[in-house]
Protein: ATP-dependent DNA helicase
Amino acid sequence: MKTQLAVCPPNDANGKLMQLANFIVIDEVSMGQKFVLEALDRSLQDIRNCLRPFGGITVLFAGDWRQVLPVVRHGSRPYIVNSTLKMSYLWTYVHPLKLKENMQVKLTGESADFSNFLRSVGNGSGKTQAASGGFKQELPADLFVRKKDDLIRFVFQDMTLDTDWLLCATNSSADEINDNVLSLMSTNDEKEYCDLVEENEHQYPIEFINKLCPSGLPPNLLLLKKHCIIMLLRNLDPQNGHCNGTRYIVENYTVTLLMPQLQ
Structure:
């Protein structure tokens, strides 16, 4: 049993922002644990002094239950299913709406083959092979890329980083892709930002400490180039759009100052 407490005081900057809100959109809700949404529900009730769900704010949940469910450490299938929104008391207040038309295919004129393939995977009707603990999904040959550089050049054809993205399964893969993209950028004005640590400050070797990259923290050695993309890791000024996950384009920099532009 987990207990959720309101951690955002009503007189806090974020609390005041929530008092002004009347509509919230939460995407990929199928991947989030119900405890997070329940904590948000209780926090908004406290902040807005209203006992209605989410403090009376209309909340739009978006997601696809064919996709990955919440990650539960060492959790079996029943534990994983029990952690979803559908197993929460909040689900009784949800009015499900199903989207039946692929607007991306309709508006862009793209082929519907890939969309249909993803739907078949989600429905379990694609080509599969039995495997220990489940099954393996057979992927079309045209979805494979043998070299990372080929993948990068395919996605960033003209190295325009502000319109295209690459999704990575792990942080280490993302770091490796980022390094490759920077090396392929035509600009040569590379800048290094390094967090210096004195030799006697820690009982561990500096080389070991520098290799650590905890989630939510920048790397010890940060390589940047003009027009590359950076992401904010803190909620510095949510009211003006500077919050966790905001992307910027590096326009210029000095030894101690970055001059990014909001993307």
